[in-house]
Prior knowledge:
There is one protein chain. The chain is an alpha/beta fold. The protein has one domain (38-293): Alpha-Beta Complex (2-enoyl-CoA Hydratase, Chain A, domain 1). The protein contains twelve helices and eight strands. The chain has helices at residues 2-8, 13-31, 63-78, 109-127, 144-151, 178-188, 190-198, 205-210, 223-235, 239-259, 261-272, 275-293; strands at residues 38-43, 48-53, 84-89, 132-137, 141-142, 154-158, 165-166, 216-218. Helix 4 (109-127) links the parallel strand 3 and strand 4. Helix 4 runs parallel beside helix 5. Mean pLDDT is 91; it is low at 27-31.
Amino acid sequence: MLQRVLRSGNNSIEAKGMLQRVLRSNLRCLTTIPAPLVVTSFDHATKVATLTMAKPPVNSLSLEMCHEMSSAIHAIEADTNINSLLLKSSSSSIFSAGLDINEMHHPDPVRLADFWRAIQQIFLDVYGSRLAVVAGIEAHSPAGGCLLAMCADYRVMASDPKFKIGLNETNLGIAAPYWLGELFVRTIGFREAESGLALAKLYSPQEALKINLVDEIVDQADVLDVAKAHAVQWAKIPPLARSSGKMNLRSPYINELILNREKDIDDFCSFILTDNVQKSLDVYMEALSKRGKK
């Protein structure tokens, strides 16, 4: 319609009014387009792509966030000139705070199932990626943030002791699913994983390095440069040999989740919808509300 009015050359009051209405309508459409939750970039010279989580304030993993991350990872993997992926945050104060509590607090059951399927998919996409994934963890990375970090092939974290990483779901009355518990065991060993899950431990960078939850700690200002350097180095390894070796170790574990995916969704939804869990989430949400009013 806009092009038709412009081509007509009609300068009548009616035509000008129509033009103004079209412009206002187009402006409203532009202003309602949501900002992307993830941002990707490609460096073909080094064969490294970057995926930046950009969902303020804490990069919580909502259904929409997971869908955008999965779509971005699939697009990056489709580029055969890319061998490595740098996973990072747009914020220097948080990597990811983990699962979006709003998805689990008095949820719609259908959306809850879709949400958990999307969380499973993020795990499958990152942990099962052909890419060498390097996590640049500039700050806190609890719960689902720790999940994302553990899915990476290499993890670089800021060394400031105030930052924490770990699976602390039990503090919210939520139990980690079996496959996340197994990932924890694969990363840090059975005994530490068992106590870490039970006690909802959040580890300092120094503690995380000691138990292999992260691979390297550096000054916060250097995290992304160091992580990028590792991604570049990993990209130089013959990709087929590297990814084949990785999947030889990971495929049986990944396939177990794929085979039991629907049962895991049913188990998660049934657990989240129990009165005890919802009461725990009520307390947590109330505490967040009070904290926000201070």
